[in-house]
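Both lines are quoted verbatim for reference:

——
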Amino acid sequence: MNSVYATILMSALFLGCASSHPAGTLRPPAENMIDLSQKEEGEEYELIVMDPGFENWFQTTWNIGKDRSVNYYSHWNNMYVSAWNYKATHPHYSQFFDTMINYQPTIDYGIELERKLYYYFRWVDTKKGVPILDTRPPGAI
């Protein structure tokens, strides 16, 4: 089975890359970065979250009894990414949404990555208090 290896990093956003702010305006670094990049053939996908507190929250929040299907997670991730990218392209939203997420809904990232990405979005919404979607998924944490 050949799959592609992707790394998703979530930490400090890029400063000023493709910024909608006027030239010469300095912005403070944001708190997260989400980067889906394609690596060599024959490798798997991996999710690395570099946001303090997420890993501990994820380990204590997720359990097998709350698990959903990969289709459930990818469906919600697609909606979260769409909302995130919309907010990243509209300057009246907070600087939290400073970069676009290159998430491809047609790619099979696997359940572990989809689950963790979904939970990252939920963590941003619930623990950081930064709403991404206007509605919460049914049975959401």
Summary: The chain has a mean pLDDT of 72. The longest helix spans residues 70-88.
